[in-house]
Amino acid sequence: MQASLHTLAFRGLETVPVHVQVHLSNGLPNIAIVGLADKSVVESKERVRAALSSLGLSLPPKRIAVNLAPADLSKEGSHYDLPIALGLLIAMGAIPSDSVDNMIVMGELSLDGGITGVNGILAAALSAAADGKGMICPDINGAEAAWSGDIKIIAAPSLIALINHLREDQVLPDPKG
Amino acid sequence: MAKRALQIAAVGAHNLLMVGPPGSGKSMLASRLAGILPPMLAKESLEATMIHSMAGHLDKGGLIVSRPFRDPHHSSSVAALVGGGAKAKPGEVSLAHGGVLFLDELAEWPSHQLDSLRQTIETGRSVVSRANHHVTYPARFQLIAAMNPCRCGYLGDPSRACSKAPRCGRDYMTKISGPLLDRFDMMIEVEEIPISVLNYPSASENTVTVAERVKAARQRSFNRPLQAEGMVNVQLDGAMLDEVMGMTVSDKDFLQTSAETLRLTARGFHRVMRVARCIADLDKNDTVERQHIAEAMQYRWLPLLS
């Protein structure tokens, strides 16, 4: 099973589109993050694993490859946690794959499953708006994202709230309201 | 005179250097400038918010609506000032984008720091080099600087004359390179405040009145079709200046003779014109006249520096 999501890398105030691809295959259970990820991105692995575990979800006993494309662009920052986690959840079938279509996903995960704020959300939201996409971001950055104009924003305080929203079980409040 | 200069600088977003003895109120004047600056345009607000967000300085998603006022200490690193470091974060020059960068004790700043500033001041951008690419942050700010005229600070004060003057003053001043001094549109001497003024203060205008006047003057400049998109006077280039000045031939001749007498460079010449344009805007005049030029000339040359 596999999944693909949109996120962004920063170059100053400019953004570069990044695709997060998650692929499950047979083999010794492991998560490997590739795509010139620097230390903070590679550490995502631990945060994602812990966050999913605190939700009561265990990782599938498969060999998981996470690719951050384009693979020759260096990736920095902690905002890849959320797209990686969502990618895994899609690959596991826990959330529908079309729920994140056309959305830029950014956010850092804490070990208890909360979604913590990241820097640069306004620049990211402006970029998303220019591209005709929406944003999935931490709740604390929701107001900031709303300053970019009239785009669809899903601002979640925790992974469980986000999953429920994407499965349409429990809708999150609109940050613009 | 210093307060007047600050108002002019606020109208056109001009770079200003204040030279004066310790305790003359230079730092205080600079912080007061923040209170009289005209409000930000929506575009400026958005840009400043993006930069502060990228630097992690935005708290709770509040849009930046008042112009940033950054006053770094002269012991800051180059990366802190201009940007860079491990994560290519924006520096003070970018955090001051749309607002004011105040450098106190200009002579105490390491010369390599001031040199790295020169490029940024001219281009309005800060380029940070990384291993395999460059990162550019916007950095269009108003530079305000303060310094003492000499090491002890009292050059030019006959009651405190020290035997090392004027040589000591000249040596102190040469710490600031000519090209950097050339970046300042206006230079003023701030005089020591006599105790009598402190003890028996006279009525002075309050900040709100002054801010309103500055705002109205800046709006005048935006009413000109050439500057309708929010171009402040400091951004007017040579070709545009002629058009917005609207001078009579005799006033132009006056400008010519004065500029030649003071031996202004081309850059200096245009700077005087821009400052004169601000003075005329403050005076609610559509055209720039002789008296505006004369006043603008005053701010171009400091006797202490020659």
Could you please describe the fold and organization of this structure?
The complex is a heterodimer of chains A (177) and B (306). Chain A is an alpha/beta fold. In chain A, 28% of the residues lie in helices and 28% in strands. Chain A has one domain (2-166): 2-Layer Sandwich (Ribosomal Protein S5, domain 2). Chain A has helices at 39-42, 44-54, 81-91, 121-131, 142-146, 159-166, and strands spanning 2-11, 14-25, 30-34, 63-69, 103-105, 108-109, 115-116, 134-138, 153-156. Chain A has a four-stranded mixed sheet. Chain A has a three-stranded parallel sheet with strand order 5-8-9. A two-stranded antiparallel sheet of chain A has the order 6-7. In chain A, helix 5 links the parallel strand 8 (134-138) and strand 9. The longest helix of chain A has 11 residues, at 44-54. The mean pLDDT of chain A is 92. Chain B folds into two domains: 2-199, Rossmann fold (3-Layer(aba) Sandwich), CATH 3.40.50.300; 207-299, no CATH class. Chain B contains 14 helices and nine strands. In chain B, helix 1 packs across helix 2 (26-36) and helix 1 (2-12) packs parallel to helix 10. The two termini of chain B are 20 Å apart. Classes of the chains: A alpha/beta (177), B alpha/beta (306). Chain A binds chain B through residues 10-14, 74, 76, 119-123, 126, 140-144, 147, and chain B through 46, 49-51, 53-56, 58, 60-63, 87-88, 90, 128, 132-133, 135-138.
Concise description?
The complex is a heterodimer of chains A (177) and B (306). With 177 residues, chain A is of the alpha/beta class.
CATH topology of chain A: Ribosomal Protein S5, domain 2
- The name CATH uses for the topology of the largest domain in chain B is Rossmann fold
Which consecutive residue ranges of chain A, at least 5 long each, have pLDDT under 50? none
Based on helices, strands and strand pairing, what is the structural class of chain B?
alpha/beta
Integer-rounded radius of gyration of chain A: 15 Å
Report the CATH architecture of chain A: 2-Layer Sandwich
Q: How many structural domains in the coordinates of chain B?
A: 2
Shape of chain B: globular
> What is Rg of chain B?
20 Å
Mean pLDDT of chain A: 92
**C-alpha end-to-end distance of chain A:** 37 Å
